[in-house]
Amino acid sequence: LTIDAGTPVIGMVTRLTQQKGLDLVIRVLDEILQENVALVLLGSGDRDYEDFFRGAEYHYKGRMVSWLGYNDQVARRIYAGADFFLMPSRFEPCGISQMIALRYGTLPIVRETGGLADTVIPYNEYTGEGNGFTFTNYNAHDMLHVIRLALSVYGTPAMKRLIKNAMAEDNSFKTSAKEYQRLYQSAMG
Fold first, then answer.
1. What is the pLDDT of residue 181?
2. What is the pTM assigned to this prediction?
């Protein structure tokens, strides 16, 4: 991948399955890559998705790279080196990738579903609150709109605040155990 310094990078580390919302990415990939952005994808799964992303890498040479398969070292480099982490899942009971991205300070762009809605707080441009970017409807253009919002924040003081917020998140078992204990004690009266 050869991009200019200062070009935002969107990373994806995912299984290439229908659950992961890849049809949304496919639907607007041309529009995403018309922006000043690079896309890095690591994953394996359904052959149709693998074939599509293999072809897309060739078509968008220098703007997109696809590593088809899984490699932990490459995954960590994507989490650490990307500016944004795209996870537009149809459904996601828990999701760990967005939490890994948060720890690295890579801002998640997610669909509000399941564990993604529980862990990614949408950016509020008026208060500066949030730790990522979210969209509600399972719609490619809603996702594209939020990607463009994220890109508009790139390199600004607001992005620095979001990264700080993301890295301060505590999604550990210690936090959930305290919440469980609080709920248990309130139920016991």
1. 73
2. 0.90
